[in-house]
Every structure is written in C-alpha cells, then in structure tokens.
Amino acid sequence: KGFHCPDGERTCNPCLDAAKACNLNNSCKKQRSTYIATCNKEDPNRGDACSRKRCHKALRMFLDRVPAEFTHRLLFCPCQTVGCAERRRQTIVPDCSYNDKEKPNCLELRRICRQDSLCRSRLADYKVNCAMTPDSASTCPNQDNHQACLASYTRLIGTDMTPNYVDSSESNWVISPWCTCKGSGNQEEECTGFLRHFTDNTCLRNAIQAFGYGVDNVQSR
Amino acid sequence: KRARRPKPCSLRELELTVSELGLGYDSDETVMLRYCSGKCAAQRHNYDIAMQHMARAGFRKRGRKDKVSNGPCCRPTAFEKDFSFLDNRSRYHTIHNVSAKHCGCV
Hints:
Radius of gyration of chain A: 17 Å
Number of strands of chain A: 2
Helix content of chain B: 10-25%
Shape of chain A: globular
Oligomer: heterodimer
C-alpha cells in the first residue's frame, strides 16, 4: 500500500514514510522512542559507549510488541536513494546494537549465539524459514512463505547474531551479522557457508524485495 | 452578526515535521504535535474575580504595581513521554515535554 515510489521521484523516501506511520501511531511511537533513547544513551559505567545489552533488550521489546505492519515497514522499506537507504540502515541504531570495535569470526559469533537459548532458537528458526530451496520454482520454503522469513529475520535483531544492512547502498544492499570469515583457518568453508545464509540468500533477498513492492501486503494482515 | 461560542479548553493536534517545531533540529520526520487551546471562562474561581477587581484599582490604591492574570489559562497539565527521531544527518535525538497529553485551566 503506497510504498512504491513513482518513477523518477527524487524526494520519495519510503523509510521516512515508515517513520511517519510509526510516529502517528501512539504505541509504535512510544516503543520506538524507548528503544532509540535506550540505544542512544551513554552508559556511565562505560565511558561514552552505550549499553548494548539494554539496547538489544529494548529492540526485542519493540519488535515483539509493535505489529509487523509498522516494524517490517521500517526494516524493509524499499529505497531508490542513498538517504533512504541510510535511514533504513539506521533503523536498529547500529552504532550501539550492531557495530563493535572488533569484528569476530562468524563461527566464533555463532558459538556465542548458541550458548544463549534465545539466540540459539532464533538462529535455528531463521535458518529454517529463510532456507534457500533447491527447488527452482520457489525461493523460500513452504510455498514461498516470505512473511515467515522476514519474521524470523526480525526476531534475530536484539540477539548476538543481530543482522543489518552493511552500508547505505540503495540497490546493491547486502545483509550480514557483525562478523567476518577472515582467520577461519581450515574451517573457512564452513564459515563462508554460514555467512552466506545472510549475505547471499535468495530467499531473504526475494522476501525483502517482494515486501518493498507490496506483493506480500495481503499476506501480512 | 452573532459572536461564535468560544470553544472550551481542549487538546488539539497537528501533523508537523520535526524541523517545523523550531527547536533547532533538522529532520523531515513527521510528528503529531498535541497542544492546548480554548477558553477557560467557565473555570473562574473567586480568586480570579478578586484579581480582576484588584488589578483595576485595588492594587494601586495600596501602592502596588503588580500585574496578575485575571483568569485561568488553558495549558498542558501533563506532557507526552519523550519523543525520539533520526535527523537528516543520521543522528538520533530525544526531546522532552514537547507535546501535551492533557489540558486544563490552571
């Protein structure tokens, strides 16, 4: 419903429209303000840094409590400009919830995630619902269930495996958790295989693209 | 021409961008600004009637130049919780007490 930009419309910013829709809904506005304020707040115990733990918790609460028609619109808004894509990247307050001083190895990050029951189950859920199907007719499992993939992706936000858009590219966007496969040694193949679930996932890519063009709107009700 | 009956003090709302609030933030995000407007004529206390009289002559007679309000004002009695937004330079901000939650004649 109306996320699609008219061709050549330069000022069109579906991510800004998504923020407007949220701000005009009392519950969404309140919950969004809460996680932003939490994630943007300096923790007195940690110098000028934020409390990532509190930020993650606030993000999970926002995404749990606010209906997907608002949250998915903020996370998966389709962009044709860098300004829009930058706003989309900023949705989860990445300076606090995503970026870190060091980029761990992805298998190490997965090990950390698996030690936490919430992260472990949500990652398993993501791998099932956003699995790439060998069947060439569909891209997502269960009759192209894009909504299930988007919902599983959303539930990873606020865990150690928090994914995000890696930059503000409007067309060639890439999604990844904050990790790298450098220094994997003899596990390089396993690591890249794992990372590709995010960076090179046709099911996730199609689900996000289909959401942007409004194809899945009827299903999301 | 008959005078229009004044509307009582109540909460009103208006859609604005954050930039339009005039607080010095540059953001195209839209907010609902809630504010208080309307008449408080019905809520006048004896205090207000006494003050109206005193302001006319009473204070001067006793050598005072005080200025007083002679009626209650329609003002917010509570504000909405903090509001957070992303500005046009990709920075997040949180602003306080910018939108009214309840109005009253005080």
